[in-house]
Design goal:
One of its GO terms (biological process) is siderophore transport. The protein is mainly beta. It is built from 7 helices and 46 strands. The protein is globular.
C-alpha cells in the first residue's frame, strides 16, 4: 500500500537534523570543557553537630560520584578540582556515620585529603597540596537518589525504573527518560496526560465512545504498565488493555518526577506489551519544615492552586509527614461545561529503628464535569475534513466523573551496609458515576452536510488494582569483586466491573442526523435515557518470582542476568443487562438478561529472561547491549486443532552508549533498538464443531511485528545556568506477515519525534529572570483501514444504516511543530512569577486521526498560563 502524502516531510528532516546537531553539540561541549563549573542550589544547608550520625547508602564505584552523593546527603559544600578525582574509585559507604567519619572512609586509599573551611564547607585536595581555590559545589539532600525536588535540574542522580535498586542513568542498560520536578513546574504540568505528551518517544492518541480514554504508545505498542514507586497502579490488560476510568490521568502535584523505561519490562511487570513502563516517583517528607504554594490562571478560565506542606512531626525527626492539596477549575477550548479536578495526598515516614523505616500514605484524585478531551469528529464521505470550528464540543448535559483512591505502605529494613529488605503493598480503586457522553459518528454527505449515526452513551466503571512486592537487595564479594543481587516476589490482582450503555444499532435514539453546516452542540443530539446495556466483570491475576544480578566480570566489563517465573489467570464475563432488572424488554430488543460471553485465560510455568553486558569505557562513558522480553496471554484463542495458543512474546535488542558528566548533572544516551513481537493471534476462520465456552476458534499464532530505530536523549546542565531535556526518536515499525507485510502497524506513530525543553538563568542585572521554551515536533502520520458505507435502505427497519460495502481509507496528518515559551521572574527569596505560552503560533492540527465516521480530534489552540509560586 502506498502512503498518502509525502512521508519524508520537511519537518521530519528538520527534526532529525536538529536532534543530531543538538546532541552532538551538547556532547562535544561536555567532553571538551576542562574547567570545573559552579552549580548552586537555593536550598539552605543545615549546620549539623559534629557528632550527628547520618544514614548513607553510597555504592562502590567512581569517587567523584560518591563524593557528590555524600555532599547531597550531608548537606555540605564540597570544593574539589575534578582533575584530582579523575579515574579514582571508592569502596562506598553504607551505614551511619558522622560527616568526618564518612569523608575518611570515602577517601581511604585515594591519595586525597579533606579540610573543613567552616562547618558547612569542605575542600578536597591531593595529599600535601594546599587548598584549591574553586567555587563550592552543593547539592541539597532532596537531590539524593531518584528524588529531584529542589535540585533545579532537568535530570536525576538515579532512577529505580527497570530494576529494584536506584542506579544512575548511565548504570541502567536500558533506554530511560526522566522528567523532573523542576521541568514539571517550569511547564506548569498538572496532569498525567500533559507530562506524557512531553515525554520523548511517546505518541498520544485519544479514545472515543463510552471510555473517553487517552492511550500512550512507545515503539509502536501501547503503554499499559504504570507504577508508583515501583508498584503497579494500572489495570494493564483489562478491557482490551484500555485503562478505563481515568485512573492514570492523576494530578501531578503529588509526584516528584516521572520515569519512562522503553521496551519490554517483563522481568518486573509480567503480562504486558513490549512498549515500556512508566514509573511515578512520589514526593517524600523532608528533614525540615517546608511550605510551597502555587496559584495560576490561564486561557479558557483555567484556574489552579496547590499547597504542599512537609515537616518533621517529632523533635528527633523520627516521624515526618507531608500533605499536598491541589485543585483545578477549567473550561475547555471546545464547547462544554466546566471541569473540576482535585488531588489530595498524604504520607508519613516513621523511623521504627535506626535501620528500619515504615512509610504509609494515600491519595485521592477526582474529576467531575464535562469530558476532559475534545469531541471526536467525523469526515466527509470522500475523506475531507469538516470545515468546522475547533470549538465544536459537547452539550451541557455531557459528563464524565471519576474518583481514584490509592493507599500504600512500604517497610524497609537494613541488615547491614550490604543488605536491605523492602516490602510494599498498594491498593488503587477507581469509582465512576454514570457518565453521559455524546459520540459523533457517521460520514458526512458532501451536498447536504448531514451525517447519520451519532448517539449518546451511558457508562459506569468500578476498578481495583491490588499490588504486593517483596524484595531483598544486597551485595556479595565474589571473585574478589562486589556483585549486586536482587531477589523478590510480587502479586498483581486487577478487577473491573462495568455497566456500559452502548446503544444497540436498532435503538430509535441511534443514527441521529446532524447538520454539520449548522452544528450546535446543545441541540445536536438527544439524550439516551435508557439503562446501560452491557454488564461486564473482568479480573486478571498474576504472581511472580524474580531474580536480578549485576556481576563484575573483568575490569570495566559487567554482566546483568535476570529471570522471572510467573503464573497468570484471567477471566471476563459479559451479560446483556438491558433493560434494568424488573423492566420489560423494548419491542426492538432481541435479548434481555442473557449471558453473551465468557472468556477464561491461564498460563503456568512462564519464564522471562533478561540479559545485558555493560562496558565502562571511562568514568564518563559506558556502552551496553541488552536483550529483554515480554509476554501476553492468549490462551482464550484456539487453533484449528482445538489447542490454545501460546502467549505472544516480544524480544527487544538494544545497543547503547551512555554518558554522564559533571558528577551526574548532565546525562546523555543514544540507543539503537530492534523489537519484535511474535506468535500474535491471527484469525483463520471459524469452526462449527468448536463448542468450548469462553474460547474462540480458529486462530494461528503467526502474527509478527517489527519495530526498529534510534533514541537519543540529553538531559541536565549544559552550564551552571543552562538546563535542557531533549529527546529524539526515529521509529520504523512494520507488519511482517500476511497481506499487510511491510506496512506500518502503528501508522498513528510518527517516524520522527522531537521533544525539547530548555531554560536559562540570566546573570548580572537580570539575575532574577529565567527564560525557557521548547518544541514538540514530529513528522506526518496516518490511519488506514476499511469502513462500512451508508446504506439508505439498510438496517432491520429499512430506514438506513452503515451496513453498505466496505471501502478502504487512509488519512494523513502532516508533520507539525508546536512551540512553547516560558519566563520566570524571582520577586525575592520566597516568591516568583512565571508565564507559560503553549502552541505560541496557534498551530491548527489534529491530535488524533480516525475514520470517515469519527475519531478525529483537534489539538489545543494557543493558550497561556500565569503562575505565582512561593517557597518557605
Amino acid at each position: 500500500m502506498k502512503y498518502c502524502g509525502n512521508t519524508r516531510t520537511t519537518l521530519a528532516l528538520h527534526s532529525l537534523t536538529l536532534a543530531v546537531k543538538l546532541v552532538c553539540s551538547g556532547l562535544l561541549l561536555t567532553t571538551t570543557l576542562a574547567l570545573p563549573l559552579t552549580f548552586s542550589n537555593p536550598a539552605t544547608a543545615q549546620e549539623l553537630p559534629a557528632t550527628t550520625r547520618l544514614q548513607f547508602d553510597i555504592a562502590k564505584g567512581d569517587l567523584a560520584q560518591g563524593l557528590n552523593q555524600f555532599a547531597s546527603r550531608a548537606g555540605i559544600y564540597l570544593s574539589v578540582n575534578s582533575s584530582i578525582t579523575q579515574g579514582k574509585t571508592t569502596a562506598g559507604l553504607r551505614g551511619q556515620f558522622t560527616v568526618e567519619e564518612g569523608l575518611q572512609r570515602l577517601l581511604q586509599g585515594s591519595g586525597l585529603q579533606y579540610r573543613f573551611q567552616d562547618a558547612k564547607t569542605v575542600t578536597i585536595t591531593a595529599t600535601g597540596d594546599g587548598p584549591v581555590a574553586l567555587p563550592a559545589v552543593k547539592v541539597s539532600g532532596a537531590a539524593l537518589g531518584s528524588a529531584t525536588e529542589d535540585s533545579n535540574s532537568y535530570t536525576t542522580q538515579s532512577a529505580g525504573v527497570g530494576g529494584k535498586m536506584d542506579e544512575s542513568l548511565r548504570e541502567i542498560p536500558r533506554s530511560v527518560s526522566v522528567i523532573t520536578r523542576q521541568q514539571l513546574d517550569d511547564q506548569r504540568t498538572l496532569s498525567f496526560y500533559e507530562v506524557m505528551n512531553q515525554m520523548p518517544g511517546v505518541t498520544t492518541t485519544y479514545g472515543g465512545g463510552n471510555d473517553q480514554e487517552v492511550s500512550f504508545h512507545s515503539r509502536g505498542f501501547r503503554l499499559d504498565n504504570v507504577t508508583a514507586d515501583g508498584m503497579s497502579i494500572s489495570a494493564a490488560g483489562l478491557a482490551g488493555g484500555n485503562t478505563r476510568g481515568g485512573g492514570n490521568n492523576s494530578g501531578m502535584a503529588k509526584y516528584d518526577s516521572v520515569q519512562l523505561l522503553r521496551g519490554p519490562n517483563g522481568l518486573f511487570s509480567g503480562n504486558g506489551q513490549p512498549s515500556g513502563t512508566v514509573n511515578l516517583v512520589r514526593k517524600r517528607p523532608t528533614d525540615s519544615l517546608q511550605i510551597k504554594t502555587a496559584l495560576s490562571a490561564g486561557s479558557w478560565d483555567n484556574y489552579a492552586g496547590e499547597v504542599d506542606l512537609s515537616s518533621p512531626l517529632t523533635s528527633d525527626g523520627r516521624l515526618r509527614g507531608r500533605v499536598v492539596a491541589a485543585r483545578q477549575d477549567a473550561d475547555h477550548f471546545y464547547d462544554s461545561e466546566g471541569n473540576r479536578k482535585t488531588t489530595l495526598y498524604g504520607i508519613v515516614d516513621f523511623k521504627l529503628a535506626d535501620s528500619t523505616v515504615l512509610s504509609v500514605g494515600g491519595s485521592r484524585d477526582t474529576q467531575h464535569g464535562a469530558p476532559d478531551q475534545p469531541a471526536g469528529l467525523p469526515r466527509y464521505t470522500n475523506g475531507a475534513t469538516l470545515d468546522i470550528s475547533r470549538r465544536a464540543g459537547y452539550p451541557g448535559w455531557a459528563v464524565r466523573n471519576y474518583d481514584v483512591d490509592n493507599i500504600f505502605l512500604t517497610l524497609e529494613h537494613r541488615f547491614n551496609e550490604q543488605w536491605r529488605l523492602k516490602t510494599g503493598a498498594s491498593d488503587t480503586r477507581t469509582r465512576n458515576g454514570v457518565n453521559e457522553i455524546p459520540v459523533y459518528s457517521g460520514a458526512v454527505d458532501l451536498q447536504s452536510h448531514i451525517g447519520l449515526g451519532s448517539y449518546a452513551t451511558l457508562a459506569d466503571w468500578n476498578r481495583q488494582v491490588k499490588t504486593f512486592d517483596f524484595n531483598l537487595i544486597g551485595e556479595l564479594n565474589l571473585w574478589q569483586r562486589q556483585q549486586q543481587l536482587v531477589f523478590g516476589a510480587d502479586l498483581n490482582d486487577s478487577s473491573q466491573y462495568s455497566l456500559i450503555g452502548s446503544v444497540p444499532a436498532n435503538d430509535p435514539v441511534r443514527n441521529q442526523p446532524i447538520d454539520w453546516s449548522q452544528f450546535n452542540s446543545e441541540t445536536a443530539l438527544k439524550r439516551w435515557s435508557n439503562t446501560p446495556a452491557w454488564d461486564n466483570d473482568t479480573r486478571h491475576k498474576q504472581q511472580g518470582l524474580y531474580a536480578y544480578g549485576k556481576f563484575q566480570l573483568y575490569g570495566p566489563l559487567s554482566l546483568t542476568l535476570g529471570g522471572r517465573y510467573a503464573v497468570f489467570d484471567g477471566y471476563s464475563t459479559g451479560l446483556n443487562a438491558y433493560p434494568a432488572e424488573g423492566e420489560p424488554c423494548p419491542s426492538w430488543a432481541t435479548t434481555c438478561g442473557t449471558a453473551v460471553s465468557l472468556n477464561n485465560m491461564s498460563s503456568d510455568n512462564i519464564f522471562i529472561p533478561y540479559y545485558a553486558l555493560t562496558y565502562d569505557i571511562s568514568t564518563t562513558w559506558s556502552a551496553y547491549v541488552s536483550l529483554s522480553r515480554s509476554y501476553e496471554n492468549q490462551s482464550n484463542y484456539y487453533d484449528r486443532n482445538h489447542n490454545p495458543l501460546d502467549p505472544t512474546e516480544g524480544n527487544s535488542w538494544e545497543l547503547g552508549l551512555k554518558g554522564e558528566f559533571f558528577e551526574g548533572r548532565l546525562n546523555s544516551n543514544i540507543t539503537f533498538y530492534r523489537s519484535k513481537r511474535d506468535n500474535y493471534a491471527v484469525s483463520v476462520g471459524g469452526d462449527e464443531t468448536f463448542n468450548q465456552i469462553g474460547k474462540s476458534c480458529c486462530y494461528a499464532g503467526n502474527g509478527e511485528f517489527l519495530a526498529q530505530g534510534v533514541e537519543i536523549d540529553l538531559s541536565g546542565a549544559l552550564t551552571a545556568n543552562w538546563q535542557i531535556n531533549a529527546g529524539y526518536t526515529y521509529d520504523d515499525n512494520k507488519t511482517e506477515y500476511g497481506s499487510n507485510e511491510g506496512i506500518r502497524y502503528a501508522s498513528y506513530a510518527p517516524r520522527h519525534i522531537l521533544r525539547l525543553w530548555s531554560s536559562y538563568q540570566l546573570q548580572g542585572v537580570f539575575a532574577g529572570l529565567r527564560l525557557g521554551g521548547g518544541v514538540q515536533a514530529q513528522s506526518d502520520f496516518f490511519r488506514s483501514g476499511t469502513v462500512r458505507t451508508w446504506n439508505p435502505t439498510g438496517g432491520r427497519d429499512g430506514a438506513g444504516a452503515f451496513d453498505g460495502p466496505n471501502v478502504p481509507y487512509q488519512f494523513n496528518e502532516p508533520g507539525r511543530a508546536l512551540w512553547n515559551f516560558f519566563a520566570e521572574y524571582r520577586l525575592n527569596d520566597n516568591w516568583s512569577a512565571a508565564l507559560n505560552v503553549n502552541n505560541a503560533f496557534d498551530k491548527r492540527y489534529y491530535q488524533s486521526v480516525g475514520t470517515t465516521t469519527g475519531g478525529n480530534y483537534y489539538g489545543a489552540p494557543g493558550n497561556w498560563t500565569l503562575t505565582l509560586r512561593s517557597t518557605f
